[in-house]
Amino acid sequence: MSNLPFTVAALYCFARLPQYESLREPLAGLCEENGIKGTLLLAAEGINGTVAGSAEGIRNLVNYITSIPELANPELKYSYASKMPFHRMKVRLKREIVTMGVEGIDPLKSVGTYVAPKDWNALIDDENTIVIDTRNDYEYAIGTFKKAIDPKTKTFREFPQWVEQNRDKLEGKKIAMFCTGGIRCEKATAFVKGLGFEDVFHLKGGILKYLEEIPREESRWEGDCFVFDERVAVGHGLTESDIELCRACRRPIKPEDKLSQYYEEGVSCAACYHERTPEDRARYAERQKQVKLAQLRGGQKHIGS
Q1: How far, in Å, are 118, 262, 274 from residue 267 at the CA level?
Q2: What is the pLDDT of residue 305?
Q3: How far, rounded to the nearest angstrom, does the alpha carbon of residue 119 sit from its chain's CA centroid?
Q4: How far is CA 235 from each of CA 55, 149, 191, 210, rounded to the nearest angstrom?
Q5: Alpha carbon distances (Å) from 179 to 131, 150, 188
Q6: Which is it for strands 221-223 and 143-145: parallel, antiparallel or unpaired?
Q7: Sign of CA dihedral 100, 102, 107, 108
Q8: Among residues 49, 31, 30, 29, which one has the least CA distance to residue 39?
Q9: Mean pLDDT, the chain, integer
C-alpha cells in the first residue's frame, strides 16, 4: 500500500468470452461512477487494460470483473501515482486484447513455462538462455534486462516476422521472453511453441512484477520500464521515474535528451524532428502555446497536455 492518492491497476485475462460485447456498457458505467480513468479492451479472447482511480474505486472495479466466472483469476498488478495518469476512460471492443495479427494463436491451449520473478535471474544468467525483449524499440531504449536482445520492432505485429528470420539463432537454446505486464509474452510464447520450440519461458507478471518484488541490489534490470500512461516510466519498487514524453511523437524522453538541438517542449525531440514537416512543428507549437495559456488561466489542462 502507498500513501499516493491514485491506485493503478494493470490487468489481463485470456478467457473464452463470447459475451464480451455485452460487458462494455456495465464496465463503462461502473468506471464513470467510481471516477476511474484508463483503458479496458474486451475481445472474445478476454480482457486487458490499465486503469487508475481511488483505492475504493479500483477495488469496486476489480470485484466486478472477477465476479464474471471466465475472468475470476486475472493477472493483476497494482502500482501508485501522485497524479491521475490518464485523461479519460475508454472501454473498447477489439478482435484481440493484444494485437499480434497471427490467426490461430491461443494462449489457453499452448503457452510457455511461467517463471516467477524470484527464479528469473537464474534462468537468464544461464549461458544457454537467449533472453528476448518482446516490447517495441522505444520501450527497450529506456530500460531492459542484461543480455536481452532487442528485436527492433515498431509494433507487436512485427514480432512473428523477427522470430521467423532468427529461427536458426534460437535452435537448441532456452528461450526466455519478457514484456511489461506479461500479456504480450502469453502470445509470443504461444507463437514460438507453435513453431516447434520446446524450452520456451516467460516472466510471470512481467517487468512490473519483477521490479515490485526483486530488490535493486539483486536485480538484473537496467534503466526504467516504460508504462502507457502519464507516469511514462517506473523504476525499482514501481516508483515514478524522471522520464517524460515528447508531446509530438509520444516517445519517452530522458533528461539528457532535452539537451538536443532538436528538442522543443511540445514540438519535437531528436527522435521525431526529421519525421515531421515544418508545418507539423508549427501546429505543435501552437498547441503547446494553448497548453501554456490554459495552465496560466488556472491550472486547467489542455487535452493535449
Answers
A1: 42, 9, 12
A2: 46
A3: 22
A4: 22, 20, 29, 10
A5: 11, 12, 10
A6: antiparallel
A7: positive
A8: 49
A9: 93
3: pLDDT strictly greater than 90: no
Alpha helices in the chain (DSSP H): 24-33, 55-67, 117-125, 137-142, 159-165, 167-170, 183-194, 206-213, 278-296
pLDDT in tens, 55-71: 999 999 999 999 999 99
DSSP characters for 12-34? EEE---TTGGGGHHHHHHHHHHT
* pLDDT for the residue 292: 85
Sequence-distant (≥ 6) Cβ neighbours of residue 152 within 8 angstroms = 137, 162
Q: Which residues pair with 11 in a beta bridge?
A: 49, 76
Amino acid symbol at 142: I
* Per annotation, catalytic residue among 13, 31, 179, 272: 179
The length of the chain in residues reads: 305
pTM comes to 0.84
Q: By CB neighbour count within 10 A (0-12 exposed, 13-18 middle, 19+ buried), where does 158 fall?
A: middle
Query: Which residue carries 507539423 as its cell?
Result: 280
The reply to whether 272 belongs to the active site is no
Whole-number Cα distances in Å, 37 to 7, 83, 184, 247: 11, 12, 22, 20
Q: Check residue 11 and give its pLDDT.
A: 96
